[in-house]
Amino acid sequence: MSTTESPERRGASPGPERSGKANLVDVARLARVSPATASRVLAGRSKGKAASHDRVLAAAEELGYVVNGLARSMMGVGRRSVAFVSAVMVGPTFATMAAAAEQVVTEDGHLFMLCTTHGDTERERALIESLAEQRVGTVLLVGSASTAEQDEQRVASYADSLGRVGAQLILCGRPPVAHRPDIANIDYDHTGGVRSAVEHLLGLGHRRIAYVGMTAGMSTEEQRFRGYRAGLDGGAIEIDEALLVPTENDPDAAATAIAAFLPEHPDVTAFVCHTDHIAIGAGRSLRAAGLSVPEHVSVIGFDDTPLVADLTPALTTVHAPFREVGDLAGRIAIGEPFGGSVVLPVEFIVRGSTGPAPR
User: Fold this and answer.
1) Which residue intervals define the domain HTH lacI-type in the entry (predicted)?
2) How many helices (H) and strands (E) would you count in the chain?
3) Which of 26, 114, 349, 352 could serve as a FRET partner for 302 with CA atoms 20 to 30 Å apart?
């Protein structure tokens, strides 16, 4: 049985046609070089002066060859990825942090990805393992951390898993892991920020100051509540457990909690809120009760999220350095030396939601 070469193939370049599934051997054959030479060229380890260099690139283009980025990462060449891992798809605070980190990382030629855990530790563990398998360069683990000892051990195990593939873990907006100074962490002064808020209210004559938010279980909650306690201590005021208003970090939940709290505590003249979201819910509930801010009651938030300066009245709050945290994390991710645990300063911003205690 004889075969006849089609007219279209006469004079065509040797090698397989473009199929989208070309491999390195196909590229080498078409470029008339060894697979080792083709590999060096496509991995960026060839200086490009030899004619074979141009033939390899032309062959790869003709065949639609796609470089295996994972393989290149495993060889220590090519772009490495940086994963931003948070509990939820980034909201306004984490979005600022992510944007700053992304700018630094991508300007240096690396990839940046967003991953979420939905607060599920098993999902978080599986995600970190998967990122290690994919040879991620850096994982930015973002947000409040559980204060339980076993959770510190879990995070330490993440650093070990990533370290085995030459990757690093950077903790963002959370405290360091005890006895693991090798794990980079960047936090900000939660405690000092809330203490400044309480001191501001004391200076305005307030003495019955409620705290709205959770107080234990997570690092951010405990650090901010510590600031509330320190502020009262500084004013020689004993903490009153009845003035602690537990609520989730949600405006609707906060509004419901404040509505139930107000009838039992008409003498409270100020609310320090764990976050701006909670402060927004508190303000809603106070207005519904016929109370004016700040004439009757003062309200303070934390985070300085977008738009709180545009509320009526504008919200007095603590500005958290989310952009600075993301920028520094990005710079460490691309190779800037890490000099130990970092705690960035916050800024207390006085706006219209606080005023003198009513007489």
Assistant:
1) 22-76
2) 12, 12
3) 114
pLDDT band at 227 (very low <50, low <70, confident <90, very high): very high
Task: Give the C-alpha separation, 165 to 358, whole Å.
Answer: 61
Structural domains for the chain: 18-67 (1.10.260.40), 81-189+324-344 (3.40.50.2300), 190-319 (3.40.50.2300)
What is each CA distance from 41 to 33, 55, 64, in whole angstroms?
A: 11, 10, 16
Q: Answer yes or no: is pLDDT of 73 > 60.
A: no
The pLDDT score that the predictor gives to residue 44 is 64
DSSP string, 219-250: HHHHHHHHHHHHHHHHTT----GGGEE---SS
Crossing angle of the two packed helices 51-63 and 24-31, in degrees rounded to 10: 130
Contact 232, 225 (CB under 8 A): no
- Residue 116's H or E segment, with its range, is strand 111-116
284-311 tens-digit pLDDT: 999 999 999 999 999 999 999 999 999 9
Whole-prediction pTM: 0.80
